[in-house]
Every structure is written in structure tokens, then in C-alpha cells.
Design a protein that fits this description.
This protein has 114 residues and is α+β, with helices and mostly antiparallel strands. It contains two helices and four strands, in the order E-E-E-H-E-H. The protein has helices at 40-66, 102-112; strands at 2-5, 17-22, 27-32, 74-79. The protein has a four-stranded mixed β-sheet with strand order 1-2-3-4, with no helix packed on it. It is globular and about 40 Å long. The protein starts with a strand and ends with a helix. The mean pLDDT is 78.
């Protein structure tokens, strides 16, 4: 089976990492997603990481379509750093009234749907 990573041997993203493992019967995506934080810089960093994951998943889907394997399962593991509901959060004072950090929850919902 094969393994690839999101960074080359000469670069390392200290804020977010992604590993993709392909086994005989399923794929595994393991991520450490950057925290959304409270500042514009950290929000931008998180949005960029989320977009990279979506690009990766889209490319994977295109490869699976060409291989006629669109139902191949993927398991996503790791620290996703998102509170999609009130019960998932720990910093309630900075979470929106609906129980989420709206931008992070919306991005997660978009990505999870892929």
C-alpha cells in the first residue's frame, strides 16, 4: 500500500498537516487542522488549510471516478479543530449563539459533504 503526505521533504507546516494512506479496502485521511483562533491571520490560515483539504478530496474523487471506484470508503481521523455544535465546544463565550463558530462549522460541513 502507498502513503503520501501534504508537504514535501523540504517543507513542514507547523500549523496543519495531512497524511493520506491507501489500503486494500479503504483510504485514511489523517489531519491536524489549524485552530481557527480569534484573529484574522489565524482565520485566513484555517481557510487556506480547509481549501487545501477540499482540493485534495476533489482530486481523489476524480481519480476514483476514472478508476470506476467512486464508492471507495475513506475514514477521516485526527484533530479536526472544529466545534460543529454547542456540545463539541469548550470556549462557549466565543462560540456563536447557535453553539458553533459559524465560519469553521460551515467550512467543516462543506468539507464533510465531499
Amino acid at each position: 500500500d502507498t502513503t503520501s503526505t501534504s508537504a514535501s521533504a523540504t517543507t513542514h507546516d507547523a500549523e496543519g498537516r495531512m497524511q493520506y494512506l491507501r489500503f486494500a479496502t479503504l483510504d485514511i485521511l489523517h489531519t491536524y487542522v489549524p485552530n481557527n483562533g480569534t484573529k484574522a491571520e489565524s482565520h485566513a490560515r484555517r481557510r487556506a488549510f480547509d481549501e487545501n483539504v477540499r482540493r485534495f478530496l476533489s482530486a481523489r474523487q476524480r481519480i476514483l471516478e476514472r478508476a470506476d471506484d467512486v464508492n471507495r470508503p475513506i475514514m477521516w481521523l485526527g484533530d479536526l479543530n472544529v466545534a460543529r455544535t454547542y456540545l463539541d465546544g469548550t470556549h462557549y463565550r466565543i462560540i456563536d449563539s447557535d453553539g458553533t463558530t459559524t465560519a469553521a462549522a460551515a467550512a467543516a460541513t462543506t468539507t464533510f459533504a465531499m
